[in-house]
Amino acid sequence: MSHFQFITKNETDTKNFAKSLATHLKKNDIIVLTGELGSGKTKFVEGILSHFDLENEISSPTFTIVNEYQKDEINIYHFDVYRLEDSSEFYEIGGEEYFENGICLIEWGELIEDALPKEYLHINFSKDDNNENLRILKIDTNLKKWEDYFENIKY
Q: How far is residue 74's CA from residue 84's CA, in Å, rounded to a whole number?
């Protein structure tokens, strides 16, 4: 498992970080986003969607569990599993079937950790106590593709 850390200075910075990362996303990629409310998870998703020219389509999936987006031949699934009791509810909606059908962005993914495949990118967002605009992104991955990307990123 490799660990990386990046600091974004504001919402725009967080979105640009995500937009840059999105250039490397492919079908079957899974990104799990964790962190307290208001820490930047949804802004990150907006950045991903903006790479695919879908930023105007975003809506919070809080009440629907998952929102589906499509650009050309790419399916993007944005999950917010905050309201699920446990991973059994994720299985009930057929959640695991999404993993192989597109790019999955999962907010509050730690709540369904036992339903996740072995390989995914995990980004934990936290606020800085001294600057309300800063976000600390702690990234864990066991995928060589992402290790290479984050080791060489010029951000």
A: 26
d(CA 139, CA 116): 17
CB atoms within 10 A of CB 48: 23
Distance CA 24, CA 10 (A): 23
69-115 pLDDT, tens digit per residue, is 999 889 999 999 998 988 999 999 899 999 999 999 999 999 999 99
Contact 123, 31 (CB under 8 A): yes
Predicted TM-score (pTM) of the model is 0.92
- φ, ψ of residue 71 in degrees (nearest 5): -135, 120
36-72 pLDDT, tens digit each: 999 999 999 999 999 999 977 776 655 678 999 999 8
Q: Please report the domains of the chain, with CATH numbers, ordered by start residue.
A: 2-152 (3.40.50.300)
* Spatial distance between the Cα atoms of 110 and 27, rounded to a whole number of angstroms: 21
Q: Terminus-to-terminus CA distance in the chain, angstroms?
A: 21
Query: Which residue intervals of the chain are DSSP H helices?
Result: 11-22, 41-51, 87-92, 95-98, 144-152
